[in-house]
Structure formats: structure tokens, C-alpha cells
Amino acid sequence: MGDAGPKEEIFTFDQLLRRRAIDEDQTALLAYPKSKYGVDDYELVNGEALNRFVDGAAKALIEKGFKPVEEETLVGIFAPSDLDYVITIYGLGRLGYVSFLLSPRLPASAVSSLLSTCKSQTLLYGPDNSSFAESVGKLLPGLHSLPILTRSEYYSKVHTSTPQFERKNVDFEKEHLRTYMMVHSSGSTGLPKPIRVTNKRLTVTFITATALTGFQSVPFNHVHGLVTYTQHIYIKKTLYLMNGHVPQTHDTVTAAIKAANPGIIWTVPYVLKLLAEKQDGIDVLKKCEIVSSSGSRCPDDLGDLLASQGVFIGLTFGSSETAVIFSSLTRPRGDTAWNYMRVMPHVKPYLLMRPVDGEICEAIVLDGHKSKAATNSDDPPNSFHTSDLFVEHPMIRDAWKFVGRLDDRITLLNGEKVLPLPIEGRIRQHAWIREAVMFGIDKPVPGLLLFKSGNATNLDDEQFLDEVWPTIHEANTQAEGFSQISRDMVVIVGSDVDCPSTDKSSIKRAQVYRDFADEIEEVYIRMERQADGPLLQLSQKELETWILERFQELDVNIPNAEADFFTSGVDSLKAIQMRGLIVRHIDVGDNTLGSMVVYDCGTIRNLAKRLQELRQGSAAIEDEDGKELKLMESLIERFSAFDVPVGDQTIPRDPLSHEGNVVILTGATGSLGSHILIQLVSSPNVTKIYCLIRPSGTVSAQDRLASALRDRMMPLDLSKVTAISSDVSARDLGISSGVLSFLGASTTHIIHCAWVVNFALPVSSFESQLQSLQNLLAFTLSQSDPARLLFCSSIGVATSSPPLYPAIVPESPIPDLRHASPTGYARSKLIGEKIVENAVIRHGARATVLRIGQIVPSKEVGSGVWNVNEAIPLIVRSAAILGVLPNVLGPGGEDVCTWLEADVLARCIVELADVEGGPVAGEQVVYNLVNPSSFSWREEFLPALKAAGLKFDVLSWEDWLEKVEAEEDIEMNPSRKLLGFWSGKRRVGEQGTEGEIQREVKFETKEAVLKSKALRNAPRVVDGDLVGRLVEAWKEVW
């Protein structure tokens, strides 16, 4: 904490302002853009200037009839956050008035209700809010409305030439307890409720001030906003403010932060998502010492992406009623648990974490906490139950992760809190609607589940929606902008489907979300997916008309094609909704639209021009990559067609054939397959293993298997193992009908590990591999009790994911074929995943995808030799041949390594197959199998290679690649074997998606870690002596 100035106690905020005016070091305290729509043209305001502005504001307000007051007198303030707004508020405070900070997003009815409740008869409004003030006046007769002060009013010679204004006979100790401002929260009854902010509460925030220059994207009317203003003024560190007149897009926020160059950024997850869309946004975050997110739950994927890119991200958590009670900003630099917040030291004695459901606890703030502004319970006495739910970190004491709320509020991705009850109540009044349930937690926009009543049974969904839409539209007019529901976000549920409810007919919201999770997720997927039928190919003029009409349907009337979106009333919700309409209906070629493309373009004309350029630029020729993507789609449909037997045609399970699990394994002669075989053999719950081995001349399948195991120095206990000569690409698996029937009656599991590994082949060359997968799935579907099939896929299916949020690949299906690495191998694996997915969805197959990352030899089992023709060994060999190694693993700066030893991975697969009869519950369709404990290529693996005796210089990826290209003798320089593949990575890295540099991709392992002890405890390759062993083994064959 920095020096706050003279040591006399500060009782009021106005005292602090006056103190800053006489500081010897006149540091800039606040920085606002000078122009109305400026982003980075900051004007620095020091303590003396700030106090002078406030003094002028007090005098100007007196001239307007605001006489100094001693009794509490509220004045509503409804305007965007800018310097005039803040100076007006501070000027009112100097006169003794209480400024009631009203969110510009509130409807007129809510503002009139709040002012009436607080007995306020005065409203100051922003320069663009005069018509709104008139609307409030019609609802609240006698309301006195006038505009907030302007610079010419509070900074004039008339005011600066007169003595500074002083309220007389002020008792500062009483003033300390007096309300200085009023804010409001959404509450739980449908209307916001006022919350007092006293001078005492503001001065308490001094103790948590951070001694860094800051940037704040949150407006002043939020408690978090006004608190950071207060703290930066106290600590004498400049706070740069986002212009409230400018829409927040990737480009505007990035430019604002870049110009500010702050030490700490105060923002919300929504803005972080915008910044993470492009590398320059991530770069400005990386330059800051701290990035603080608050207001809503920051998605783990987003935070993990930023952390993996070198951003020190942390969270603060609090409310209008409690102020900040948790923070992860002050954790040690090496502590990666960014999303587990520590209890603030001054809060700890007054915080009770009460269990509500297992390990989930509710935060309860006790009497005595100085910043507690409300009480809602006497259990304990005078306590505040936050309804906020947390789980504690398993290893770090008093570190808590926010998981949700007890109440029904829906917190959107941008931090706005939707109150569903009043909206649902209005919609539910329609006779044809049985129930209405809003959704949208952690999503960009809200949606609505509509349950048909019996009266609407005979209507199709489109007719039904046409009939009830006027009711929804009317409810929208009564709701805040961010709470409004667009037509394409409505999900219609049939009259014969139950809506979970209590005995009192209240909906069970959490259960509804669980029961209809697929339908809800489909709506958001649909936002990114094209509509059925041909897309519209329109001229620019036609596009302008189309966009204008769509905005009218969204209740936004834009006067002409040149009018600015933001000033015409297009908020972020409307921008997102318009983007969704464009994606679904307008042909933009194969291009992806940025999440804020509407705001980025600014006007209808610019947006129409952008869309036309995208279509024309991509439609000129169809490249080879486009052809291969179409081939992928064709292969998916072709190999997802199963002739599924029914009834007596299925093969019944023979309960007497074997006690325990019977496993079919493919690929047992390969590196991973042999390790899986050893794990299966050692399992007491596996009674029989059938290894399907490709035919090879006169050598029997059993001999081929035994020879492969000997070559790999694997144990040769084959007592449970039968090797069968098999061509899995044949419809009957190349096995006699009798043996096939026997296998069908006894097999409980299939682990499909066989696949051609060749990065140079096109995807068309993998058709036989895809045929094999289809055949095995068809085999399981022919069983009356289908065996569980585990398909060994590759993380290559997602390593070309676009550099947009989410940057962490979830344990779920890949949404876009373009996300696969541009090799036939990776694309064939993604086709395989889609075939498995379709078999599960369409036919009820029991199948799981195992998305496997880099495998290294085991130090415990096998020969310990890493195949010298694989990519990593070929890279490492360049150290011995050329004396150089790259500082990263690719053009996108890939540095994080999540490699797994083969035996660990094999144990993990067997655990996930559930052949052990262990605690694996339910059936997950996808698991990501990478090491949850990563290491750095540059900082850990390269030093380990040097410690093992290799001598080399470290070059950039490009310089290293040039060295490899320069040595053309492939016998002398085997690293050239994969030159085409590496060059392809360079091209992908240069092009990325939408011209962006491809960035490192991280894979979520939550479910796999939960269900596999082997993965939970997986060692890092760089720990211990494994790297040394690998180098010694390589030296013997180099």
C-alpha cells in the first residue's frame, strides 16, 4: 500500500478529495478520454484539478437550486459513466446530497419505483437521456428532472475565482456514518432494491487498495466501479477509465488498455472473452501485473487460456451488500489456482461458510463486518446470507471456488443478472402456455423454455410461437435490455412433457436445467450454425435492407445505413443476436464472424460491406482443403450408416461363456496396444482377451503377437490371451461365422487401438481404418447387450481450433471439422469420433472416445526406446546432427507439454473401460487423455536434454526449420523426414484462423482425472531420470 498523504484520520470521501488537492506530489488520479467517443485520448486529472472541478460543481449546483443540506436528500443520477457524471456526483456529495446511482439499463418503471421508494423528487440525466427522463416523469408526477453538469459549468472563471465551498459546522464523526451514495441491486422480487454506501464503507475499502496504476472497464454505478475509483484516489495511483459512450469491443478495449499501460486491470469475464478473441488482446493483458475479473463467474476455460498464455489472472468476489469478501489477486505467483479465492483477512472473523449440500457451502457474512450494508437473517443474529455457493480447494485452506447461487438469478457471461420470475410470470399468463422457464447461466444471451398447455396440442411449433409471441414481446418491453428474449432463443416443449415442479407448483429450476440440458445447449449451438436451406447471397444494397429489417424485428429502429449502432440503441445483447441471425441466414463463404462483428463495423453500411467482401473473397475458388473438408463430411455420413439388427436377429449374451469381462483388443502389437494388453492381463476382473491381429503370410496370429511383445521387451504371460487372425476392415471382421457368433455372445468390451500412423497420407487413404471402426461398432450393435467400445483417438482432432474462447478443448464432441490438424491422420481420427458420436446418438451404442496426446516410453515396463521416426525424437535428433533445437514445438509458440508414459496411459484406459468394476460411474462419450501436470519444453525439457549430455544451441522455430531444410542428406539428417509436416505446421501457424497466429491448445481433463486414478497421479516426464534414459536409448540407435 502506498502513502496516502498526511496521517490525520479521514472520515469522509470529501475529506479525501480535499486532502488530495494539497498533496505536494500532484499525481494523476483519474484519466478519462477527452472526446465524447474517444478511446485512448486520455486526459489526466490530478488531485488539485479534481478538487477544483468538484468545488466548481458544488457552486454550479447551488446556482441550479441545490442548497447545502443536512438532512438526507436523494438525487437520482441516470447517465453513462464519464467525467461529467463523476464530478456531478462528487459535487452533490460536497453539498450533503446522496447520489442514487441508477443503471442506464433500467427501464423507466424500475427507476420511478426506486425514486418513489426513496422519496426522491429529483433526477439528473445524461445528455442523451432526456426522453427517458420524460418517461420517468410521466410515471412519477412532480419529478424535477435536469441534465447533469457539463465541463463549462463546473470549470469556469466565475467559480475558480471565488473561495472554496465549505459546508459549515460539519461533525465529521457523524458524517462518517452518513450515507454518501446509494446503489441498487436486482434483488429477488423482480424490482431492484436500494443499498446505502456510507462514508465509513468507502473508507474501509482503503485497506484493500492495490498500489498499482489501473484500468477499469466497469461503470461507476456498479459498486465495484465506485470502490476502485475510491481506492485509486486514496492510494494515489492513476485509474484509467473506459469511455461510457463507446461500445466495448475487442478493438476498443484493447486500444484503451494499450494506451493506459496499467499495472492492474479491473474488468468482467465478458470483456476478457472479447480480449481473448485475438492475440493482441491477450498481449495487453500479459503486460499487466494483475488482471482482476469480477461481476460473474469467469469460465474456467477462459481463465485457463489466459493463465496458459502468461496472464496473471485473479478473481474478486463480493456484492453490493457485503463489498469484497474473497480474492485470489494476492496469491503467490507460482499458485495456479486462480479460480479459488482466499477469504480477505479483515473479513475472515466475520465469514461463516455453512454447508448446504455435501461439500458445497453458502457464504454468510456475520454482524461486525464493517462493509456489511444489509441484514437478512437472525441465524446467526444480524447476518447476511449471500445465497452464493462455494466449494473449498482440496489442498489450500480457506480457498474457495464459486459454483452458483441458491436463488434463481441468471448471471450472463457479461455479469448482467437476469431476474426471470417477473418475465416468466408475464409470459405464463397466456392461456396456451403451461410453464415458462428462462435459462442462460454463463451464456451471452438468455433463452426461454416454453411448455405448451393442452389448449395448444394441435398447433405445430411455428404456429404456436406466432400465437404467443406478442405476449413474449410485451414481457420484453417491461424488462431490462439484457433480459429480453429473442425469437430464435425460444425452445418449445410439447404438452405431454412434464415440467419439474414442487407441490406448490413452483418450478424446480435446477432440475429443469438438468433435464433439458441438451435442448438448451442446442439453442446456443444453433446460434453458430447455418439454417436449413440455401444461405442468402445478397448485394450490398439488399444486405443493408435485410439488416435494417432484422434490427426492427429486434425492436431497434436505426434511422439509416450510416447511423452508428451504439448510439442508435444497439446494446451488446442486440449485437450478439444480430450476429446469430447473420450466421444462420447470410452466406459469408467459409469465414467465421467475430463475436462483436456488429459493433466492430459500427453501421449498417459497413456491416453489409464486410459481409459482401467475406462472401466474394471466399467464393472465388474452392481450394484443396475445402474439398477435403467436404470429403470428411461425406465419409462421416457413409460410415455412420449401420444396419442394426432387432429382436431375434441380435446375438444373445451367453452368461456361462465366461465369468468376468471379456475384451477384444486391436493394435496389440503396437506400442500403446501392447501396454494395454499387459494391463488387461494383470486385471483379476478380466477373464479373457481376444487380440485381433492382421494376417501376415504363414506366421500365426499368436506367434506374431508373441514376437511383437518380445521385441518390445514386454512380459509374455499370455494365459488369458487368444490371438485371432482378423481383417477388421471386412464386414465380418475376417473371422468365421462360428467364431464371430461366439465372440458376440461373450464380449463385454472392445478397445480399438489399431490405426495407421502416417502424417503424409491424405484423409482418403484412411477409408479402410474408418471401415474397421464402423464394423466394430456394428458388431457391438448386433449384440442383445452391446459391448462397450473404446475408440483411441488423438488430440490432433482439435489442435487447429480457432484462437477464440473457449481455448480449452472440453471432454465433448468437436464442433467443427476445421478444428483438426490439417493432416489426413488427424482428420481421419476426427471422422472416427463423429462416427462414434452418431452411433451413440442414433443407435444407442455404448461407445467412448479416448482423445490421446503425446505418448512416451515407460520407464517401468518395456524397452524404453522412443521410436526414432516419431516427431519428437526426430526433432531431438537435430541436436546431435545439427547442434540446434527449437525453443518451441511449433510456429504458434507451443511450449506446454502434457506427455504421458505408455504404461500410465494404458492403466488409465483400462480404468476408464471399467473392467476393474471400480468407481467409474455413468458413460462419458469423450475423455481427453493428456497429463494434467504439464511441463515447459523451453524451461524444463531442453535443460533436461542438456543435463543428459546433449549439446545444442536454442533457435526460434523458423530459424531451426531453416537449418533442417539446409542439410539435404536425409541419411545424415533424418530430421528432414517430417519436413513436409513441419512446413505444413508453419503454414497453418502463419494463417491460423482469420489470419490469426495459431495458439497453443489446452485440453480439459476433469472427467478423466475424476474417473482414473492413474491419470490423477500421472508423473511428469521431466521429473526423475526418464529423460536421461531416453537420451541413452537414442544414442544406441542414432
From TrEMBL:
Gene3D superfamilies (alphabetical): ACP-like (1.10.1200.10), N-terminal domain of ligase-like (3.40.50.12780), NAD(P)-binding Rossmann-like Domain (3.40.50.720)
Name of a matching Pfam family: NAD_binding_4
InterPro entries in the cross-refs: ACP-like_sf, Adenylate-forming_Reductase, AMP-dep_synth/lig_dom, ANL_N_sf, FAR_NAD-bd, NAD(P)-bd_dom_sf, PP-bd_ACP, Ppantetheine_attach_site
Species the sequence originates in: Phialocephala subalpina
Keyword check for Phosphoprotein: yes
Name this polypeptide is given: Related to nonribosomal peptide synthetase MxcG (component of the myxochelin iron transport regul)
Domain Carrier: residue ranges: 538-615
Keyword Phosphoprotein set for record: yes
Keywords for this protein: Phosphopantetheine, Phosphoprotein
